[in-house]
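sorry to bug you again but im stuck and you know this stuff better than me. below you get a single protein, a line of residues and a line of whole numbers that encode the local backbone shape. mainly i need to know what kind of three dimensional shape the backbone takes. anything you notice is useful, everything is just below:

***
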Amino acid sequence: MKVSDALALHGGSPVRSRMLPYGRQDVSDADIAAVVEVLRSDWLTTGPVVAAFERACAARAGARHGVAVSSGTAALHAAMRALDVRAGDEVIVPAMTFAATANCARYEGATPVFADVDRDTLLIDPASAERAITPRTRAVIAVDYAGQPADYDSLAAILKPRGISLVADACHSIGGASNGRPVGTLARLSCFSFHPVKHVTTGEGGAVVADEAPLADRMRVFRNHGIVSDHRQREAQGAFAYDMVELGYNYRITDIQCALGLQQLERLPAFIARRRQIAARYDAAFAQLPAVRPLAVRRGAEHAYHLYVVRLDLEALRAGRSEIFRALRAENIGVNVHYVPVHLHPYYRQTQGTHQGMCPVAECAYEGLLSLPMFPAMSDSDVDDVIEAVEKVVVFYRR
């Protein structure tokens, strides 16, 4: 942003006196009390609260089994191991996502193959995914970008006859649904994240839900070093020996974290309702602002609104996204950008030879993306501030 623009925009005072973040946890006194209760108990990890949280995650998602782990990334990695993804395999992922969606395939020696996204929703484009299938394709990971479920019906129609597994990266969409079916029932495995900016937080944490017991069993072994029993089971059996049956990881989550998660899950319906209220306010305001275009919502999708993403019409503005970003930050609106297309990260350029032009829709969209503040604890006044700041900056830079 030029000095002259800064003076013109902010010569008086910014819309807010303090920064409003794009996301933030909402921790209640009941949440804190639940954590304290575990801290005073005999089990801080691998105890009964972990199992209770897993059951609650599965029930909320409409699945038979839940496996809790240390992060959403660990959940994606566990899903790859459960599906026996290995070196020589390919896993199709959308270009518009966080790097972990692709990295989880690399962790198992497989190659992520990047599919383009739908122009209006930025969800994986089933036609692009189908074109990317080869005899080496083991799985497709669909990302519920911003909280909107992907088109799982179209993907399943493509993949099921070919015997290719469908995985939901549902780290943005717990509490959402598609055509009346909850997120957690739309793919063979569904992966959740419980980072502080997500709908439900455990501080750090994640989970995978599944209907198939063998997949859940393998993920539980995988998260515990590849060992088939934990110390609690051995104590109950009066045994001390344990067997490591495969190379696993320490992806365990603690009872402390799961106590927080259990409480947060009870509040999920209220969290989702508030996010949808905020989204509706944004939708109404930006319908009158042609240079700001919210993403489309698919017919039948029940959006969970982890993020509220808009695309700037840069042809209607005399500034690029970076200038708009800085101007809104100067108004103390904590906008963010989600995401740099994964295939354009230096790591993938260097290791796989990926390059500009591979996923043109995602690449074009990235140039104008902005994520606006979206979290349940936002007040109506906070929402008003975001709308006012966006209108102020966009009108200033309008051609």
The two ends are 16 Å apart (CA to CA). The longest strand covers residues 137-143.
